[in-house]
Amino acid sequence: MAGIRFLTTIAKSCHCTLFTEQNALQQVCESIVVPNLRVRADDEEVRATTPRCRRRQAAISFVRHVAPLRHGPLAAYADLLLARRCST
User: Can you tell me whether residue 11 is helix, strand or coil?
Assistant: First the structure.
């Protein structure tokens, strides 16, 4: 979760241009964002005691800060990832 927070801090800073490259954005989405958005078995236990999953909230926060930088490509790539996940 600390890694996602770090990436969000970069996305908010003057270094946000690091996420304008399609390849970098794809790698971050595939390796960090998507795995952290998935509901895990232990999330059910956490939900009983905590209303929010901090891991997923951190991933969502990152996407919210990167989306304005690459809205079109990010949306297209998100659609592709969702299509892949739904077909398996």
Answer: helix
